[in-house]
Amino acid sequence: MHTPNPDAHPQASTQQTQTQTQPHTMGSLEVRINSAGEDLLEGLGRVLSQIPDTDAGPQQLAKALGIDKVLASRILKALRAPDPMSVVHRVPGPEPMRRLLKASSKLGVDPQDLSNANSAVDRFETLIRNEIGDRSALEAILSAWVPEARREFELRRKQAAFRAMSQLKGAQADVYAEAAIFYPSDDDEHIDVVWIKAVIGLHRLRPGVRVKFTSHRQIEDHSKRKTYTLSGDPVDSVSSATLKDYCSTPTPELDVHHGGELMHYMLKDLAFGASSSVDLVTCEVNRAEIPRYIPDSKNRKAWASSDINIPSKKMQFDVLVHQDLYNRSFPELKIYDTTINGQADINDPSRDMDQLDLLESIENLGTGTTRFGSSLVPKYRKMIEEVCATLNFDPNTLRGYRCTADYPIHGSQTAMIFSTQDRPQ
């Protein structure tokens, strides 16, 4: 959970580091990739137009040419692409395309059309080899221009990163979910912040690995911060911080280690392998944690973030806000790389350079817990309702915002940012 700090960081100075030739170089490459797509579309299109029943679909084309259905499907999908860049993204490699053209030559296709198509494939191969490097680098470039390519590019790379990090760290989770609840304090001057963390399917991949996740706050004076369990006891052991009805059975045992703004939870059980998976849900209550009113002159933002410190297949991050709080605008989403400079304070402009350009977005869940269901966290709505009832919060006054991700990047920080409110006149 992260909150506004009235002492703003100084604006970071920036320098222009790109040369004037870079935009021209990239623009020229864009033209050549686009031209390659046009040539492939023209060449392959003319060849396949001479093969009977091409419109019948990939199975018929595969049968007619004696090629596999996957190759036939990719070629037809490429020819239906909306623009040349999408053609380049969708076509298979040069050698599979040459196999298709060789098979087409046996069906009476015009030799000149075959020659033109083969020349287009040769130019495509030369472009990749001499100017780009390989197909993976080409997909990275296309991700900037083709939405479909970007989605596939991000997902595949994030999945590969997940596999590598989970094996290196020796642990992983199916779901890493966090929810922050912002609710007015009784004194009407502050905001209570409740933080729920759910790690589903957590397990070691190999023996002897330390499994840890961390709760981190950035507030003005953490020496005055007191974190309580849902029952009102100080969090000095995780046994009382866990929501046992929502954990796996037996309840996972953890050690808690305090460190200033950090609270580390260490998994005690030394079992490993998928059969040892556990579900762990904790809840921290922070009464009057942050000021409710921040003068507009301070130009500060309120924020909450989820830091991915366990390699996970899925992420769900919710912020549930009382209807009277932060209602001036829709929240903003920023995702940071924390590997060098640590956790980002979104009010520090020098951290803007650490932002990751990803496709994640914020979903407006609406108001009331009936809108807060989840397919990732078991009994999620019931859990939120129970937390609210215990704390005497009215769940129907909460509006929800959600960000989800497949294979969230380990070491990333997903932040939702809210405009603060000045004291009413």
Please tell me the total number of domains: 2
3D shape: elongated
CATH architecture of the largest domain: Sandwich
Q: Count every helix, treating DSSP H or I runs of 4 or more residues as helices.
A: 10
Radius of gyration: 27 Å
Describe the largest sheet: 6 strands, mixed
Neighbour order of strands in the largest sheet: 6-2-1-8-11-10
How many strand elements? Answer: 12
Report the sheet-strand fraction. 15-25%
* Helical coverage, percent range: 25-40%
Mean pLDDT: 87
How far apart the termini lie comes to 29 Å
Highest-level CATH class of the largest domain: Mainly Beta
Looking at the structure, the CATH topology of the largest domain is Immunoglobulin-like
Order of helices and strands: HHHHHHHHEEEHEEEEEEEHEE
Given as residue ranges, the uncertain stretches (5+ residues, pLDDT < 50) are 5-24
Class from helix and strand fractions = alpha+beta
Describe the fold and architecture.
This protein is of the alpha+beta class and 425 residues long. The chain folds into two domains: 21-145, no CATH class; 169-419, Immunoglobulin-like (Sandwich), CATH 2.60.40. The protein has ten helices and twelve strands. It has helices spanning 21-48, 58-65, 69-79, 84-90, 94-104, 111-132, 135-142, 147-169, 238-241, 380-391, and strands spanning 171-184, 190-204, 212-216, 254-259, 262-267, 278-291, 301-307, 312-322, 332-337, 363-367, 398-406, 412-419. The strands form three sheets. The protein has a six-stranded mixed sheet. The protein is elongated and about 85 Å long.
